[in-house]
Design goal:
Length: 209
Amino acid sequence: MPRPSPTSEAPRRGRPGYDQETVLRCAIDLFNRRGYDGTSVGDLARELGLTKSAIYHHFPSKSCLLQAALSEALDALTEVIDTAVASENGARESAYERLESAVRQSVEVLVGHLSAVTLLLRVHGNSDVELDALRRRRAIDAKLADLVRAAADEGSLRADIPPELTSRLLFGMVNSLVEWYRPEGRYDAVAIADAVTRLAFEGLALRGR
């Protein structure tokens, strides 16, 4: 029977006594430090003090490890944006408020999943797994642009900047945190989220709002 393609593989439960989450965390760290192509399953096994076969009991391939890592970041970001979009019908919040909340929560996702998001931002589309991750990122960008457009249409956000550009700039500000944010630093997720939303939305809001 042919083996499933990398994009369709799912993490296995693993052999009792081993922690699948620890394997994934170590893999993400190595992928960020050495690059995905520069890291082998043997490297991961040596880092953890396990055999390669023990790694394969948790994840059937290296590409499956990458898929799980990227999905961690993408699933969290997608949930934030989809919640903001879904609340459009019947919600009391304006599009502006939902957009601001989406950006704030995106900061919290980045801080909470810093290593996985860092890996996501380094993806270039060199495999089916990476191409799928890029497709999901574009979908998130498009949904955020729709929120920007809705906020401009309701008259609460300046409309002289194209929504797609505003979306890219907002995510660019959020994503830049991976370059300098450290969990042990002086600023926590709430302080950073407050700063990002204030800087972004005080410039985007219409005067007199």
